[in-house]
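Q: Could you fold this chain for me?
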Amino acid sequence: MTPIEVQKIQELVYELKIGDIMTRRVFTVAPTTAMREVRDLMRDHRISGLPVLADNNLAGIISIQDLIHALEENALDAPVSRYMSTTLYTMSERDFAVRALSVFAKTTVGRLPVVDDDGRLVGVISRGDITRGLLKALEKVYQEEEIRRYRVRHVFEDIVSDQTSLILRYDVPYRDFTRAGRASSQLKQTLNRLGIDPRIVRRVAIVSYEAEMNIVIHSTNGGNLVAEISPDLIVIVAYDRGPGIQDVEQAMQPGFSTAPDWIREMGFGAGMGLANIKSCADQLHIDSWPLPGTRLEAIIHLNRPEGKGTDEIEPNR
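A: Sure. Below is the predicted structure, expressed as structure tokens.
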């Protein structure tokens, strides 16, 4: 099970209500019922516990462990009241599955009676019910996700035009490290929802993150990150309103950085940004001027998941 699946299950535990996953068809016995009948009910219906009702009120629980105890004492003709447990933990239909799991973890009980506001039995919840409920809910989530991805993935097929593309624009503020990485993260999320090859998504994520961080660190008035997605390629353009790059070839060297020391101390500005972008892009174009700033364009072809390294660097202006 992947970490994402584990996380989703944890979320569902806090969303699933007991009333949606509990067993509603409940076999019950009375305090006067013989343990022999308990044995037959458990065997015939493959259940390991039965609520005990007295005058339609919940009086206790009889479990398979109690039945084993009766068998050891050769007391199958004894009444249920002799062996049942009267220590009861009850649930409401409105409770979430996580509450039942908490009780299961703290006690040895295997099932919990579910009662209404008047205390009347309406069902039981077991670990198995929760497991089946989670799997069913998870399956529904995956089905809905696949349907959504299919619809988004075929969006270009449903639009009639000579050239179709999807343009995403993100504003990147200057020196706002609390929001740094937000644009590239949202772009990655969008590409995943479009069903883009994960290898392509990874390359785009690296390019967009490094370009975004360059804007955060080096611009003087922020900038923009724009991604244009078409059926054949993804074009990422980063606009940096700043002082520009004095020497593009030098800036492309791994480890070269003009970031001040205080930014380096924060863990940014290591001088690998442009080098990482170059290694992930199929084509790279950089235009930089002293006053307007820098325009970086990275192109990634969708039919080259691993990339081919056909980089092109435009000279500094």
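A (continued): The beta strands are 49-54, 57-63, 91-92, 111-115, 121-126, 166-172, 223-229, 233-240, 283-289, 293-301.
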